[in-house]
Specification:
2 copies of one chain form a homodimer. Chain A folds into 3 domains: 4-65, Arc Repressor Mutant, subunit A (Orthogonal Bundle); 86-170 and 223-243, Tetracycline Repressor, domain 2 (Orthogonal Bundle); 177-219, no CATH class. In chain A, 56% of the residues lie in helices and 0% in strands. The longest helix of chain A is centred in the middle third of the chain and has 19 residues, at 149-167. Chain A is mostly helical. The first copy, chain A, is built from 12 helices and no strands. The first copy, chain A, starts with 14 loop residues before the first helix and ends in a 7-residue tail after the last helix. Chain A is flat. The relative contact order of chain A is 0.10. Chains A and B meet through helix 7, helix 8, helix 9, helix 10 and helix 11 of A and helix 7, helix 8, helix 9, helix 10 and helix 11 of B. Chain B binds a DNA duplex through residues 4-5, 11-22, 44-47, 54-58, 60-62, 65-67.
Chain lengths: 250, 250
DNA sequence: ACCTGAACACCGTTCAAGT
DNA sequence: ACCTGAACACCGTTCAAGT
């Protein structure tokens, strides 16, 4: 994990270094910005370097060894503030709600980065120990101890963080086809033409569900957020865990 | 969506074409195999072409326009069998369980492809209309109609499919660092050294949670599956939806 | 209809060399 | 300590041309 960048301690910058004067935080911030503009799929280290007015090798010097390490830094920088400003003086079930509502809010602030958090395993775990402890502590207060802690934790995190990952799954890079129609156009048409004979319930529910449920949509949660669906999920989980607590709450 | 390949209708293959004789299904199958071996991050169209003993351009001819279209074909080919062999003569809640247990089983058969299903929006929706109808129909029978259908559907699919996406999030491409240690080694050590002063609950629960909960693991669900956590989640959702059905079940 | 071969504009990553 | 510049081995995608 040697990145060469050991925090600012009033270093004297000399020569060319002084003129450029980049640090890891700036590289990470610029990367997040670029991903936000062009999307994760189109993100490139060389383009990032160009934007920073710097040689590609500089990225490698500031961040660890590879593109994947930059991704890990990005994840860490976003989840780093996850446990800040939480109110610990609430009933355990409300604390759980608070934690995951905040998680969703944070990720929604950087929707393009969501796949990194949800679909990649490397996201510097140390930064998240506070978060884990917070959740375990709420569960503990709710009566979950020993063996019961693990499945409860996983059901919550997997279900809720997983929801956000799917909600913010990026749409395809939209280039119009030969007839000038985008994938969005085509998909919207297909959904509208759902055969009522074959799929009676789907067809009947179209006004309510078209572009607003997971499989039948052509815009991501960054454009059409799933607030109430997430809150229902959160409610089902927290209330359910409350109802079947293996030990009396403390 | 012109792919040039309009299903086999007893075509007479001539010249070089006869010798190679590739079709879309074979390309997709080979791609799935290759992703399974080397991982999604390392997947390349050129390598796929080499493996098939064919020029790179051939992939473009059989599949639509770009790499993303191949991904969509892969997703479709995997989710295509999702609604096969389902037992429709069960209570609605058991039907829901069946659907999502099958979803997880299917994706676990191709863990490396999981990010496509969970973290990319383009996965040819038409193939999944059966699946959507199945879920809507179960919910309908459970008393969910009109407005209530959408959030219930989204909570289920987002929570459960999202869980599987996170469960199977791929680990980093493991190359040992300068001291010959992999990311897995380093991460395992860090977790083991969790400070009991700062994180008392986490430290105390380590034997139960180390490498077995979402944030504190270094192996994916492909190696260490989260069966009971998924079943807990499924149970909380289905039981919860049952308890708060807006209309009497039919 | 299906495939080749070459070409174009890009990548990620490494490394010796500069200040 | 921080950065440049060039080099290497790869990509995805397109297109004219072959059979």
């Amino acid at each position: 994990m040697t990145t060469g960048n050991d925090e600012e301690k009033g270093k004297v910058l000399r020569g060319r270094a002084a003129a450029v004067g980049l640090n890891k935080n700036q590289v990470v911030a610029a990367a997040i910005a670029q991903i936000g503009e062009k999307g994760l799929a189109a993100f490139s280290l060389r383009e990032l370097a160009r934007k920073l007015g710097v040689s590609p090798a500089v990225i490698y010097w500031h961040v660890g060894g590879a593109k994947e390490d930059l991704y890990a830094e990005i994840s860490a920088s976003i989840t780093g503030t996850l446990s800040e400003g939480l109110d610990a003086d609430m009933p355990w079930d409300d604390r759980l709600r608070q934690v995951f509502l905040k998680y969703r809010e944070l990720v929604h602030r950087h929707p393009a980065v969501a796949p990194l958090l949800g679909a990649q395993m490397k996201s510097n775990g140390v930064a998240n120990l506070d978060w884990v402890e917070t959740i375990l502590s709420a569960l503990h207060d709710g009566g979950y101890r020993g063996d019961a802690l693990r499945p409860a934790f996983n059901a919550l995190v997997g279900g809720l963080a997983g929801f956000v990952t799917m909600e913010l799954a990026p749409p395809p890079v939209s280039k119009p086809d030969s007839e000038g129609e985008t994938w969005q156009d085509l998909f919207a048409k297909r959904v509208a033409q759902t055969d009522p004979e074959l799929y009676p319930l789907t067809a009947a529910a179209l006004p309510e569900i078209s572009n607003r449920i997971f499989v039948l949509r052509w815009q991501s949660g960054a454009e059409i957020p799933y607030n109430d669906s997430f809150e229902l999920l959160l409610d089902l989980l927290v209330e359910g865990l409350k109802a079947r607590a293996p030990a009396p709450p403390s």
